[in-house]
Amino acid sequence: MVEIALLWAAYPTVAAGGVLRHEVAWMPSLGLNLVLRMDGFAWLFAGMVSGVGALVILYARYYMAEDDPVPRFFAFLLAFMGSMTGVVIAGNLIQLAFFWELTSLFSFLLIGYWHHLAAARDGARMALTITATGGLCLFAGVLVLGHIVGSYDLDAVLASGDRIRAHPLYLAALVLILLGALTKSAQFPFHFWLPHAMAAPTPVSAYLHSATLVKAGVFLMARLWPVMAGTDAWFWIVGTAGVTTLILGAYIAIFQNDLKGLLAYSTISHLGLITLLLGLNSRLAMVAAIFHVINHATFKASLFMAVGIIDHETGTRDIRRLSGLNRSMPFTARLALVAAAAMAGVPLLNGFLSKEMFFAEALSAEGPLPFLLDVLPAAATVASAFSVAYSLRFIHGAFFGPDPVDLPLTPHEPPTWMRFPVEILVLACIIIGLLPAATVGPYLDMAAHAALGAATPDYSLAVWHGFNLPLLMSVIALVAGVTLYRLLQGHLGKGEDGAPLIGGLQGQRMFERTMVFLSWRLARTLEGLLGTRRLQPQLRLVVCVAVLAAGWTVWLRGLGPGNLTPSGIDPVLALIWAIGAACAVGAAWQAKFHRLVALILLGGTGLVTCVTFVWFSAPDLALTQLLVEVVTTILLLLGLRWLPKRLDVPGV
């Protein structure tokens, strides 16, 4: 609640187009300062993080069981919330990458919260591996971007769009940064980790997959859109990933038997929609993407919470065992019905408005190979029809039909306060759908102007735009989706989760095979080649690699002082260092023959280090080094007594 209060206190400034900035000097010589920066765009995302987070915390209070370690759960959840807030208000690219990896770490802890379940451990490991690897790519891309601009400060980066796009390293920075964004937002071909993260408690799923973790990727793409978009490379990479994920996720969602699995793949699809909009190199598409981010957070969080209520009160999420819950859980059924209708793009709900904007942008898209863009409206309509089909399956399969039998628990309505967050979010879906300009309009306009500046285009949030092609596409999608569900109804729910025609696209198998290769076969091979029973050969290998790396740098740049001004060498200090070097070499040599002599020589190198600190006027460091030398030498002397006898092993 404190965060929400601070956000509202900052609203007048950011609504007027201002930027709040707080900077703490850290390493100014390297251009690295701790910067908190909030404009209208960051304010909107921070509002979603804190607002949906507060509702999820209230919901989790009634969802979690008494025997769960609840304090640990809320500690992880709040830490994740802080990390995500750090991502959106970071004013420094290095700082952003740091918080980015923190979100991966805390999401790993949240997904694996029920660590006694194998599915939770596997899902957490997969999510951490994919998103943290993408985070390393992002960090490398941030370093390249900072090199191009000459600064890691976000304001400096956002003011250098032309310079970035014209630089020879632009493509390298783009690919690395997009690898981080696409892995975090579960875009094809990295989409497979998100459904396995459903092993987390439902409050975690509702939060991570509606307003936070998976939105970090689209936030980053939207944040850097003004300086990295507008090129063919951006169009092909982002647009191709978006349209593929949009259709593939929607198609697979239809065939899921687990309600959370259905919502997981629908999340993948909607993230693909947002990514596709960002990839179209259109400012209106950018506005539509921000609008759909808001709408998706409302209806997806409410749907996940509704699934949690069903699971909590019936003991199962399997749609094959559920039916007729409308009679025993009428209020929950109506809330889920409205949220699912918003997800399907039914008129007078918020999802319909942003999908209309998506259809309009699909019709007017411009770019290379125009004949491929002609297919985009058809792809958008097909994906929307799939969305209608899986939304119908969710509602019809769980809430209509005969009364359920053999459920683990007798279904009934949840506690009032457990349902309250769902009611708030569903109410937002309705109000935004009926009065978009008066409700979400000011916040969308504030975020769009913060992201696009003076180039923000004119757009309309009117509910009715007359009879036009986007409306026709919406009608076709609704009719086609209902028809598709009726045709598939007799075939759905038979067998395990999975969709036909995608056997070769199961990323989980590729991930598992890769992990087996890296952690077993490759590791065993390297261990056989490099591993020994003695420490000295391994240390020798490490030192040789370090020497080769340093030698390679010297060979490339030449041996010289660089930008430093050479100074004279004091002969006394040179003699002291020569003594230290001789002691170090002697210790390494005597280690093979006489351990006590080696230890005495090692102490000599420590004393030379102490003298060096005193020479350069650092007596505190010299005293610390001297104490460490004394303690470690005594411990090593005591340890010599219990060391085993030497082994004469040939070849090592």
- Strand percentage, roughly? under 5%
SS content category:
mainly alpha
How would you characterize the largest beta sheet?
2 strands, antiparallel
Helix content: over 70%
The average pLDDT value, as a whole number, equals 87
Backbone shape? globular
* Neighbour order of strands in the largest sheet: 1-2
Radius of gyration: 30 Å
Number of helices: 29
List unreliable stretches of 5+ residues: none
Question: What's the number of extended β-strand segments?
Answer: 2
Intertermini distance: 63 Å
Oligomer: single chain
Give a structural overview.
- The chain is mainly α and 652 residues long.
- 71% of the residues lie in helices and 2% in strands.
- The chain contains 29 helices and two strands.
- It has helices spanning 2-15, 40-63, 70-89, 93-111, 118-149, 154-158, 161-166, 170-184, 193-196, 202-208, 213-223, 225-228, 232-253, 259-279, 283-314, 325-328, 330-344, 350-364, 370-373, 376-399, 416-434, 436-439, 441-452, 469-488, 507-530, 535-557, 571-590, 595-615, 619-640, and strands at residues 20-27, 32-38.
- Strand 1 and strand 2 form a beta hairpin.
- Helix 14 runs antiparallel to helix 20 (376-399), helix 18 (350-364) runs antiparallel to helix 20 and helix 18 (350-364) crosses helix 21.
- The chain is globular, with a radius of gyration of 30 Å.
What is the topology?
Blueprint (H helix, E strand, L loop, with lengths): L1 H14 L4 E8 L4 E7 L1 H24 L6 H20 L3 H19 L6 H32 L4 H5 L2 H6 L3 H15 L8 H4 L5 H7 L4 H11 L1 H4 L3 H22 L5 H21 L3 H32 L10 H4 L1 H15 L5 H15 L5 H4 L2 H24 L16 H19 L1 H4 L1 H12 L16 H20 L18 H24 L4 H23 L13 H20 L4 H21 L3 H22 L12
Antiparallel strand pairs: 1-2
Helix pairs in contact: 1-2, 2-3, 2-10, 2-15, 2-21, 2-23, 3-4, 4-5, 5-8, 8-11, 8-13, 10-15, 11-14, 13-14, 13-20, 14-15, 14-20, 15-17, 15-18, 15-21, 15-23, 17-20, 17-21, 18-20, 18-21, 18-24, 20-24, 27-28, 28-29
